[in-house]
Amino acid sequence: MTTRTATEQRERARASYDAFLAGCPSRQLLDRISNKWTALILAALGSGGPHRSGEACADGPRPMRYSELARRLAGVSQKMLTQTLRSLERDGLISRTVTPTVPVTVTYELTALGLSLQHLMRDIKEWADTHMDVVLANGEAYDSRQG
Fold this sequence. Notes:
Helices cover 59% and strands 10% of the residues. It has 6 helices and 3 strands. The chain has a 3-stranded antiparallel β-sheet with strand order 1-3-2.
């Protein structure tokens, strides 16, 4: 029996990743990163998030406090925000920094891996913003045909 190093085992597993297979870990990763809260958190950390008309948009990625993220992400519950941030930290997409102040300051920011994903998510968000009118019109046309 041949003994393989951990690196060799990871390389062999990587070659066999196929998200079309039910047990593949890449399918689980796709599920996590396609979550709306994941996409919005990455967008917020990557650009400061959505801005009101007339507000300047942040130049790029920057750390944000939990409370700031909660304000930016309208409709997210505290539980969902906490779970999503923990998941992103576990996957190495964001880092969490605790500063011992009174009260304690906790900030989140994109890692290099998270930044690489954020660029893709930003493009998907921009596509959605650009094509939303067409998608809505198609939905109305479909609904009217269905009766």
